[in-house]
DNA sequence: AACTCGGGGCA
DNA sequence: TGCCCAGAGTT
């Protein structure tokens, strides 16, 4: 089975396993998507959802967040990983957006990655989700799952990103990010992958090797 | 390439 | 208790 054929199968199988892949982290508002994604680094979606629900009541846009005190922001995000750094980062981000981008989220990679706390993955989430640009966000889950199944054979995440974009239709990028992410988180885990519960094991290079 | 950051969920 | 996590930044 070719990588492209596996992609078609993945969409079908994981699509039914993880219905409604559009998680609560996907906000219609680009600002809220950006902030939520910064907060999400090395944290769980549930942690982030609890925090953003309260945070965006107080600060739904860049202008309102930029006027908050650091201690106030810290208190709102205190239950998340690296909350000291992240509070500082999202406050700084909001002030940069207000001062340099008229309060809006930029739609260019260089501008996004220059923001504190925004790396390549977060930038790609914003570009693909909010601005519909054809870029694939690749984190450790997407990287690991893609390689185990055998849709790519790459050593570095950057390679995975470009290789996946060659075989995934642009319109599928956002859904695939969530499919591979959720599958990596809950089934195709780094340490103890549950191949016996995996609906893809029959086409998976890793499962064939470890069964 | 290796290290730091570091709260909270879960076994 | 110990292990590990929807990355990014620094050295």
UniProtKB/TrEMBL annotation:
Gene3D superfamilies: Helix-hairpin-Helix base-excision DNA repair enzymes (C-terminal), Hypothetical protein, domain 2. DNA repair enzyme that has both DNA N-glycosylase activity and AP-lyase activity. The DNA N-glycosylase activity releases various damaged pyrimidines from DNA by cleaving the N-glycosidic bond, leaving an AP (apurinic/apyrimidinic) site. The AP-lyase activity cleaves the phosphodiester bond 3' to the AP site by a beta-elimination, leaving a 3'-terminal unsaturated sugar and a product with a terminal 5'-phosphate. Transmembrane segments: none annotated. This is Endonuclease III. NCBIfam families: nth (TIGR01083). It is an enzyme of class 4 (lyase). The keyword Cytoplasm does not apply. Belongs to the Nth/MutY family. The lineage of its organism: Bacteria, Pseudomonadati, Chlorobiota, Chlorobiia, Chlorobiales. Binds 1 [4Fe-4S] cluster.
